[in-house]
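Reply to dn_fold:

You asked what the input looked like. This is it:
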Amino acid sequence: MEKLETHNDRSLAPAPTVLALVLLANDESGITATIESLGWADGRVGVDLGCKDATVEVCRRVGLAVVSAADVDREVGRIRPDWILLIEGHERVPADLSNEIRRVIDGARGQGPIAYVIDREVEFLGRRLRSRVWNLPGCVKLVRREARSWSDGALTLEADPVDGRRAGRLVHRLRARPYESLGHFVTRADVLTTASARAMRRRGAVARWSDLALHPAARLARCLPGASMRDGIVGAILVLLDAYRLALVSAKHWELEHNAERLEQPR
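and this is what came back:
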């Protein structure tokens, strides 16, 4: 009797798919470059965190579908990708990083880490910064779809997407230009801090007055010396702005808790 051939070769399985969720927060000036850097992804969806400029219009003009933060969970369930890449509207994925992402997820096939941290190469006020304090510890960018909930509360910088002990770290880095100018910081930070405060409120986090001082102070103590030493006044400015951003999140969270009925309505 002829022996039947069995097919257990993993190479016959379909390649894992990647959906890029592009978090939009007044990124009008750089969003086109971000979208172009994601041409390798199997799918791309913009997530409007509350843009007040023309970011959403630019996205739709170049063919990027945009949903609200509240609709992300449903959209992810509809597309059902194997992996999700969280990327902000000012970040770009260079070719060496996209190749590494493909290589890592194709080699995983159900094994290895469920998430990966991706560091950033940051440019601010015309200077490429050298300090590594701009890389958010434990904030994963690439994660298996089933590893976490995709509610809007998990899309902000304050979210803890997965257990950091199970996250790997990629070698290549994102390129980021978070603020084109100090004026851009003001408009972008307003969107980001409002989204973060609302997400914290929906997660049931309690607004404490101590957070208003402790979180910014901790960021200053941890980051200011290294940033100033390696990046000079530009690095010091960015650390101060980031500490202010944290204080604003805590202040808006407190305001929401005490004025929820009036302030939680979309603006």
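The first strand starts at residue 18 and ends at 24.
Hope that clears it up.
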